[in-house]
Amino acid sequence: VSTQSHGVQLSKDVLMADFSGAAIQQVWEEYVAQTHIHRDVEGALALMAEDAAILYLPVLTGARGKLQLREFLCHDFMGRMPGDIRMICLSTLVNEANQQIIEENLLQFTHSIAMPWMLPSLPPTHRRVEVLVVNIISFEEEKIKSFRSYWAHEYLLQQLETANEPLPQHNHRSALDQVIEYNMSTPPMQEKQ
Question: I need a surface site. Which of 21, 94, 151, 188 has the fewest CB within 10 A?
Fold first, then answer.
């Protein structure tokens, strides 16, 4: 993960006294740094609640509780990412009242390694893919309570040429190009007065 594309800022002083929207963003960015850059399981777990859960919904992988999370992060996640993986954050919504972050990311990689967290039981295909991913991160008492991730799994499998149906012929533009076009054509929301 590129630290510039996701805005990761490494800091020992992650938590702020009033646990504002900025504070939960800092906790999340530190978690991303611990899992993707430092690959420090204990550093990541220190930012999570005791009964925290990770769930990758399209394939139902993940874990709950620090004991299972430690096992999942060690064996199924860290070290199970292709060397060229890139996560580009397209938008972030911080819901301070509900202590949640919702992110839209573009994930790009060459499937050069087994990825049990995202593509369980699928050996490397060595194909280049990109997929839009939505993450919902919930917080409780200055810790990550849950992380849920969603993507169009069938579309991902089609790019890897493991699905039964071929990709639609009209889909020549990248997912990033399509998101940029949508964002440019959608007027910003106006505040109600």
Answer: 188
**Amino acid (one-letter) located at 61:** T
Structure tokens at 1: 């993960």
166 vs 20, more confident? 20
Q: Give the residue carrying structure tokens 């991160």.
A: 137
Tens digit of each residue's pLDDT (9 = 90 or more) over 64-100: 999 999 999 999 999 999 999 999 999 999 999 999 9
Interatomic CA distance for residues 187 and 124, integer angstroms: 41
Q: Is the pLDDT of residue 117 over 80?
A: yes
Q: What is the 3-state secondary structure (H, E, C) of the chain?
A: CCHHHHCCCCCCCCCCCCCCHHHHHHHHHHHHHHHHHCCCHHHHHCCEEEEEEEEECCCCEEEECHHHHHHHHHHHHCCCCCCCCEEEEEEEEEECCCCEEEEEEEEEEECCCCCCCCCCCCCCCCCEEEEEEEEEEEEECCEEEEEEEEECHHHHHHHCCCCCCCCCCCCCCCHHHHHHHHHHHCCCCCCCC
Per-residue pLDDT band for 181 (boundaries 50, 70, 90) equals low
